[in-house]
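Co-fold these.
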Amino acid sequence: MSAFLAAVRREPVPHTPVWFMRQAGRSLPEYRKIRAGTGMLESCRTPDLVTEITLQPVRRYGVDAAIFFSDIVVPVAAVGVPIDIKAGVGPVLDEPVRTAADVAAIRDLTPEDVPYITEAVRQLVGELGDTPLIGFAGAPFTLASYLVEGGPSRSYTNTKALMYGAPDIWHALCAKLAGIARVFLEVQIAAGARTVQLFDSWAGALSEADYRRYAMPHSAAVLDGLTVPRIHFGVGTGHMLEAIAEAGADVVGVDWRTPLDVASARLGAGYAVQGNLDSIVPFAPVEVIEREVRRVLAEGAKAPGHVFNLGHGVMPDTDPDALKRIVDLVHEN
Amino acid sequence: MSAFLAAVRREPVPHTPVWFMRQAGRSLPEYRKIRAGTGMLESCRTPDLVTEITLQPVRRYGVDAAIFFSDIVVPVAAVGVPIDIKAGVGPVLDEPVRTAADVAAIRDLTPEDVPYITEAVRQLVGELGDTPLIGFAGAPFTLASYLVEGGPSRSYTNTKALMYGAPDIWHALCAKLAGIARVFLEVQIAAGARTVQLFDSWAGALSEADYRRYAMPHSAAVLDGLTVPRIHFGVGTGHMLEAIAEAGADVVGVDWRTPLDVASARLGAGYAVQGNLDSIVPFAPVEVIEREVRRVLAEGAKAPGHVFNLGHGVMPDTDPDALKRIVDLVHEN
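Predicted complex below.
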């Protein structure tokens, strides 16, 4: 039995399972080597590359789960939205999506649009053996923020202005993106993903009232009734963890600001928790790493299910040896 | 009696007072005109400019308080740290501060270092008449983050790595910056500022435990025993408002994520509250502006003192007419 799947289901575990958001990526020299000369979107569409990149951290660290290597804009690009990923910047579009016509022009995703995802997941599941694969998708709000801003943002001015000023267009856009994200996850589940994580990376930019009004129904449409356990995470969502849970989660991911025992006390017995180690802790001396890992383990032990993770993604210049030490510490405890 | 000073002291008010963080600045055409061709730091060192810029929003909007126009790095530059403010970027240093020698090289601030601040405040207080002036300073953590990163950051990697990895250097740096911020506020108070606001803009990047360990003692050293009421604010500090209050506040500023009634219920009878209107609401249609202003007023009415404000600074491309409408709405209610 996988420790990860047990924790996700709030069942007894042989040891606390651990994986890291962005464990597959720039912090690994073997990743930088294999990605050299290949663009991000092209990499995500190449099953052999996706398989190798997803496996790299599993091999190196012995983590308890693999996270499907992809990008949140992959399914959006697959339906023809002219979006690209600029190295060091993130997703960018020349023409932001802001009108009813812009939204209507986005078509639905079908499994036939992403044969490379099915192929990559099948291949991966074969290679992974007993290690479960976590499927990956971006949530409607976060996807919409990239489409409406035309790129990453600090203030989400255009996104919120559309939300407040043209709620019909906003909801039509998010409903479309919810359908796309849903199919993207279903494709991964059909091919063998054992759980999924919905990344609503920037949902924390909203107040709880705005989240419930403008974002949550669309995330619920992605998550509701999926046939595998669901992890739901957004940075800076500590002020509305209950809403993140209610949107449809089995595991609520929390960032480095919300201790796991605090999160779990608020969420109650029906949810496992994941996260909280500050992504900068791996840069600290070993005593600090040990102190913080022990703290997260002790706080997580109070929850009905605990998946050890960072409170955000692995920073690109993280020392892989520090992550390896953390995995070993978690497994020894 | 000033409605603003009454609210800050949790006394009965004739109407709810309102001002806006960054009300003096780029959103005003008269500001862009007067600043044309003058660098930010140079502007902050020119009393006539500071006076005019600080007065502009008071004249235009009829807000209940003026906020001293300055920048958090002004006192740091005044002791010779080679920091500049790059338009569209923020504070930048060629050589970040990261070693014990770097910290030791920063000298203390004396009132004689900033005669232009004394002069500007005196002149302003004369012009403002009954409208109180809020003194302005940046908190040690936020100042330190600029010095350690060498500029703005999203992840505070170097800042947290120094905090965790070399706490002695970190605390020495913050103690130095606390002394500088303290003197900077005392100079403004001596010249006539009737309240102060300490901006710990990026403190929300810390967990409460880290804030209490690494930042709060230094903010307390700035705020403790000042002779005027103190407003204390940081974006994204909803997870640790109690600590922001305990650091030494009469008014706790909250961002758009924490409703004022929720904040006040947590803080109790000893604190007034300020903030919460999303800075993007001024971009919304008038119905949404009215709905949100009424919501904030209703929630703020449950606190023992309420200063109406945004949950963050005014966005540079905000329509001044929308802010004027908000001031009028607040005053009519």
